[in-house]
C-alpha cells in the first residue's frame, strides 16, 4: 500500500481500521511511502488510512481518506448472473441484473469491466439473491457486468467474479434521406385522407341539412295552401 504525501515527511503510519498499525521512518524525507505484505492473509484484508509527520512538527497530520484491501478467496464459488429484459435495449430502458449463489447471508456487489470499484452493492435478505436495477440506461451504460459476493463474517473477503453478461444500449438510428422522404409522404397521405374525410362529412351534413330545410319549406307552403282553401 502506497501513501502519497502532500509534502516531504520523515515519519509515516499506516492504520488498519480495527486492526494493525504499521510505522515507517525514513532517514531522508520523501513524499511517498510504501508498505508491503509479502504473503497476504485474511487478517490483512480491511480498510486502511495513512498519516505522516514532518521533522520539525510536534503533531501529526490528519488521517487520509480510506482505501479497502479486499482478499479474493477462491474457496467460495462465484455467483451466477442474468439480465432482463434483453442484452440489446434502447436508451431510457430500465435494466435489471440479478445475481445469486447457493450461499445465503451475503452482500452482493455488481461490477462493470473497466471500473476499479463495484458500481452497486446490495445486502441479501437471506435467500442468496440480489437484484440490481439500472434506471433509464444510456449508451454510457453499455459494457460487461459481473457479480461477486462477500460473506457476512468477513466484510473484506470476496468470492471470485462470476460469469458475465453484456449490455448494449443502442441509440435510435438516424433516418436516411429515402426513409425521411418515405415517412414524409406517408404523413402527407394521412393528412390528405383526414382532410378528404372531413370535407366529405361536411358535404353530407350540408346536403342533409339543405334537404331538411326544403322539406320544412314545402310543408309550410302546403299548410298555407290548405288554409286559403277553407271557406268562410
From TrEMBL:
The keyword DNA-binding does not apply. GO terms for biological process: cell surface receptor signaling pathway; immune response-regulating signaling pathway. Keywords: Disulfide bond, Immunoglobulin domain, Membrane, Signal, Transmembrane, Transmembrane helix. It comes from the Eukaryota. InterPro entries: Ig-like_dom, Ig-like_dom_sf, Ig-like_fold, Ig-like_Receptors_ImmuneReg, Ig_sub, Immunoglobulin_dom. SMART domains: IG. SUPFAM superfamilies: Immunoglobulin (SSF48726). The chain crosses the membrane at residues 186-208. Residues 79-147 form the Ig-like domain. This is Ig-like domain-containing protein.
Amino acid at each position: 500500500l502506497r501513501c502519497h504525501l502532500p509534502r516531504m515527511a520523515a515519519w509515516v503510519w499506516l492504520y488498519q481500521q480495527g486492526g494493525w498499525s504499521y510505522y515507517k521512518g525514513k532517514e531522508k524525507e520523501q513524499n511517498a511511502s510504501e508498505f508491503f505484505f509479502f504473503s497476504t492473509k485474511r487478517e490483512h484484508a480491511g480498510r486502511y488510512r495513512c498519516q505522516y509527520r514532518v521533522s520539525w512538527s510536534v503533531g501529526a497530520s490528519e488521517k487520509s481518506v480510506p482505501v479497502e484491501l479486499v482478499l479474493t478467496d477462491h474457496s467460495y464459488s462465484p455467483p451466477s448472473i442474468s439480465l432482463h429484459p434483453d442484452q440489446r435495449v434502447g436508451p431510457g430502458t430500465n435494466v435489471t441484473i440479478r445475481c445469486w449463489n447457493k450461499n445465503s447471508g451475503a452482500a452482493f456487489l455488481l461490477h462493470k469491466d473497466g471500473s476499479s470499484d463495484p458500481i452497486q452493492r446490495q445486502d441479501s435478505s437471506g435467500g442468496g439473491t440480489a437484484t440490481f436495477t439500472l434506471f433509464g440506461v444510456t449508451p454510457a451504460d453499455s459494457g460487461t457486468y459481473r457479480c461477486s459476493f462477500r460473506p457476512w463474517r468477513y466484510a473484506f473477503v470476496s468470492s471470485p467474479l462470476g460469469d458475465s453478461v453484456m449490455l448494449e444500449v443502442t441509440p435510435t438510428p438516424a433516418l436516411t434521406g429515402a426513409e425521411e422522404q418515405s415517412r414524409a409522404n406517408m404523413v402527407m397521405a394521412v393528412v390528405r385522407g383526414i382532410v378528404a374525410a372531413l370535407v366529405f362529412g361536411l358535404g353530407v351534413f350540408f346536403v342533409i341539412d339543405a334537404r331538411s330545410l326544403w322539406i320544412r319549406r314545402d310543408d309550410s307552403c302546403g299548410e298555407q295552401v290548405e288554409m286559403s282553401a277553407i271557406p268562410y
